[in-house]
Design goal:
Helix content is 28%, strand content 19%. It has 6 helices and 6 strands; from the N terminus they run E-H-E-H-E-H-E-H-H-E-H-E. The chain is globular and about 40 Å long. The two termini are 18 Å apart.
């Protein structure tokens, strides 16, 4: 996917590390800003830091406390914080909500083999 104009991108995990609401040096901030600059429509979820995220992310980001909402008609999903919550999701059901089953695992914390068996195009950062 090279043209992100108008594409819905689901972003999972906004904080610097799981188990906190800490945004210091959080990779989500520059990544979300870049996605928006490229024309993407960003929908984001974090297990505990949705309210705090409003202070750090552009106003155009759609923040949701419902993981399902960010996946509806998403062109792709990106995992940025390795919360246990995301590893335990029903990926089969979430994949059914997506327009395209493209998943970028920025932390290499998901089971790539299982996701590929479910029909996802899986990209793990630093993996071949």
């Amino acid at each position: 996917m090279t043209n992100l104009q108008g594409k819905k991108i689901a972003v999972m995990g906004l904080t610097f590390k799981p188990g906190t609401d800490d945004f210091r040096e959080a990779p989500s901030i520059p990544i979300v800003q870049q996605l928006i600059e490229e024309g993407a429509e960003v929908w984001a979820h974090d297990p505990i830091a949705i309210e705090k995220a409003q202070k750090f992310l552009p106003k155009t980001v759609m923040l949701s406390d419902s993981i399902e909402n960010i996946f509806i008609n998403a062109e792709a999903a990106i995992l940025l914080t390795e919360w246990r919550f995301y590893r335990e999701l029903s990926w089969n059901e979430l994949g059914k909500l997506m327009k395209n089953k493209i998943l970028i695992d920025g932390r290499n914390s998901l089971d790539s083999r299982s996701l590929k068996q479910l029909g996802f195009e899986y990209w793990g950062i630093g993996r071949k």
